[in-house]
Amino acid sequence: MIPKLELHLHLEGAAPPALIRDLAARRHIDISGIFDERGRYKFTDFAGFLAVYEAATSVLQSPEDYARLTRAVLEDSADQGVVYAETFLSPDFCGGGDLSAWRDYLAAIEEAAAQCAAQGGPELRGILTCVRHFGPERAKRAALCAAETAGRFVTGFGMGGDETVGAQKDYAWSFDCAREAGLGLTTHAGEWRGPQEIRDALQDLGVTRIGHGVRAIEDLALVDELAERGITLEVCPGSNIALGLYPDLRHHPISELDRRGVKVTISTDDPPFFHTSLTREYEGLHAAFDWDEGQFMRLGHTALDAAFCDTDTKARILKKLESTA
Ligand SMILES: [Zn+2]
């Protein structure tokens, strides 16, 4: 039960299958095809993953559904010893990108998160995301939702979705808009495309964090640049292995990136989809690289430094990290 921080967690991607099945049954939506015989999410490749993800998300149709989802996800996080998490929220899935609808979803999510925190659970903050394969115009609507609701809970803006669609620079307007609103910036890069995508993200979007970024390892000059600039990678080893990027943890570059001075952190991305949890990630890294409690605590501090929350929150989380150490 090492205290943990998680920076890369898609809220819908963390939805327990039982919750999704229950909502589908209440709404008479047949999504039985997305589950295997054990009731787990079923897909074979990244395109299939995105399709299952969107089918599962389609049953989440109201602010109340998202409040329920938030509570379920935070209960799971609490079980993993998480003291602080940032979750990706997409206005496209919460009201179709409409600002007024988004405000209703946000209020429900924020209230659920505040209740969990008041009961001693993890503190949660939101990073609004645009969906890359929905295109730049819809991304602008997501960015405007982010800018309009930036504050204590909404602390960042990012981009998820299919990295092979378009270019990072196509979304520069949205990231500029979010930056002007004072939001922290991150984007998925260096997962399905190589090192150039990471360079583009840094240059064209001005992000300080990269979602995944693991394929930087294919360009050691870029690895040095990431280390020198203090760019933080939100690394999700189990996700990379489940989607076939690497055969197993021993072949995963997280340890080499860390050894070369890159700021790495550990997250689960979409845990029930990849049959993982943060505790399982820690156990796997311990087994593969002999990482010990000191190493995990060091990475916890890296994550806290890179978190998009305010300094008061950081001070509070630091106390939790140190008091439970
Ligand atoms: Zn992700």
TrEMBL record:
The keyword Metal-binding applies. Keywords: Hydrolase, Metal-binding, Zinc. GO terms for molecular function: deaminase activity; hydrolase activity, acting on carbon-nitrogen (but not peptide) bonds, in cyclic amidines; metal ion binding. Its EC number is 3.5.4.4. InterPro entries: A_deaminase_dom (IPR001365), Ado/ade_deaminase (IPR006330), Metal_Hydrolase (IPR032466). The keyword rRNA processing does not apply. Transmembrane segments: none annotated. It is an enzyme of class 3 (hydrolase). NCBIfam families: aden_deam (TIGR01430), PRK09358.1-3 (NF006848). This is Adenosine deaminase.
